[in-house]
Amino acid sequence: MPGKLPPHFLDLVADAILHSFRRKRSLRNFLRRMNIKDSFLSTWQEEGETKRDFIYRMFPYLERTDAGQGVLRNMARDLADQVEFPDLEGWEDSKVKKARAADTVRALNAYLAKQRENVGAAKEQAAARKRAQKLRDERTRQTANLDTLRARLDQLANKLGSAEAGYEFQDWFYD
What we know:
The protein is mainly α. It is built from 7 helices and no strands. About 15% of the residues are buried.
C-alpha cells in the first residue's frame, strides 16, 4: 500500500493546475505529457464535467498507487517550474489570471522548498546519529583496551622482582 500524500500538497497541485490552464485542450495536453493514460483522459465528458470536477476525480485515482503518486509529484515539480503562462494569454483579464496563477505556483514552490528542507534536515539527523554511534563504539573499544591493559598490569604485580616481569612490563608498556 502506497504512502499517503498530504492533503495540503494535493490542494496546492490542484490549484496550480486549475489556475495555470484555462483551456481544456491545454490542460489535456499537459496531463498527457505527465503520463496520464489516454484511457482515463477519454472519460472526461467535454460538456458535462468542468476542469475542476475532472481534476478532483483524477486525484484519488492517482493517489491509489505509487506510480500515480509519482505522477502527482512530477506534476508538482513541473508546475512549480512555470515562469510564464501561455494558456492565459488573450483573455480580457489575462493579467489577473496570470497573477493568480503566479501566486499558486509560488505557494507550491514554498511548500516544495519546505519539504526539501525537511528531507535535508532528516538526512543530517541520520548522519549525526551515525557519527554518534561510531564515537560510542570507538569509546567502548578504547575502554575495553584499557581494561585489558589494567588486567595485564595486575598480573605483572604478582611477578615483581623477576627478570620475566621486566620483559613483560616492557611489552605491556609498548602496548
